[in-house]
Amino acid sequence: MKKHLFPLFLLVFGANAQAQQDFFAIAGKDTSGIVFSDFRVMDAASGASGEKIFSADASARVFSQERKGAVSEDKNSYNHSQAVTMAALAYDPSNNNLVYMPMFSSNIYILNPKTKEITLVENMVARVTSCDISSHITRMATGYDGNIYAMNNAGTQLLQISRKGGQYTVSDLGIVKDDVSNGKNSFTAIETGFGGDMIADAENNFYVFSASGNVFKIIAKELKAKFVGKISGIPDNYSVNGSAVNAQGKVVIASAKGDGLYEVDLSTLQAKPLPGQEKPHIYDLASKYFANDRTSANALANIDIYPTRVDEHFINVSVNDKAVKGNLKLNVFDMAGKNILKESLQVKDGSLNQQVYLKSLITGAYIVNVTNESGKILLNKKILVTE
C-alpha cells in the first residue's frame, strides 16, 4: 500500500510544456517492492512524466548544515540521501528547492534541482524508528505560511520545518488526534489512516489523503483530524500514495502500485482519470499550489499584483479599467492576519502601474489586499517574500 509498508520515492514536477514547472514527484522502479528511482517533473494535466531531476544512481554531493561542510554517507543504510525507502516530499517555493525525508530516517534533505547539491539537515526532533511503521514520516507539504510540514503515519508527530537566515530549523507541533466524530474511520489506524500524502489549504490547515483513499482534514490549531470522506471514482485496489494541488485548485493523486494519475475535486471527493496512458510508480507528489486558495469573488481580471515570488522587496500594482477611479488602498497582512504595511495608490483615467516597496518584510508568505475608496475588495493575492 506504499507508505505504511516499505516505500519507494518518486518526485513529480508538473505543468504543461509551456507552463512553469511546479509539480514534482518521487518515482520508483517497476518492482514488487519499494525502490526509489528518481525525482522528476510531472505534467499535472496529463499525468505524463517529464524531466528526471535526480536519480538513485547519480553521484550525490551532500553538505551538512550542522557541520558546515561536505559529508560522506553510508549507502548501505536507510539513512542517506538516496535511500530506497522514501515517501515524503515538498516543494519550497521560496528558493525552488525540494525538501524530502527517507522513511526510516529522521534526516531532512534539501535538493537544489539546478545544481543537484543536497543539504542535510540533521533532525533531532523526529523520533523515527526503522522497525516502527507508525513513526515513519510519510506525508509532507508546504503550508500557506511558507513553512514545510511533515507528519508520521500515526500522527504522533507533526513537524514544522522553517527557514530563517538560510538555516533550517525543526519544531514538533504535537500529536494529531482523531475527531470524536470519526468513528471507525480512524486517522490513527493502519487500515484507514496510515500512509498517503497531504496537501495544504489557504487557511494553513491540511488534508491527508491516506493510502486507503480516506481523506482527513487536519485542523492545525486544534491538532485534530476530522474524517471528510472517501475518494470515489478510483479502482477498488488503488493505493493513494501521492497528492498535490494543481493550478486549477484540484488535487492530483498518484499510486505506488504503478497506476494512472487522477484529479480529485476536494469539495465532492470525486476523482476522474488524467488522460495520460503512463502508469508510473509514484510515492509522493509536491507542488506550489493550495486548496481553496482565496481570491476575492469581486476581484477584477484587469487588476493585478506581480511578481508573487518577491526576491527584491518590490511588487508592482497594475490597473487597467475605466471603472476603477480615485484612491486605492493597499494593505499587506501576515499569515496571522496582522496588518504590517499600508500604501495609498492613485488611479488616473482607469490606469495605474506603480511599484510598491515592501520595506523590511522578512522571508515568508503574505496576503496583499487592494480596496477602493468605499472599502470594496478589488483583489486579494498571496505573495511569498524570499531572501
From TrEMBL:
Residues 1-19 form the signal peptide. Keywords: Signal. Residues 305-383 form the Secretion system C-terminal sorting domain. It comes from Chryseobacterium endalhagicum. It holds the Pfam family Por_Secre_tail. The keyword Amino-acid biosynthesis does not apply. This is T9SS type A sorting domain-containing protein. Transmembrane segments: none annotated. It comes from the Bacteria.
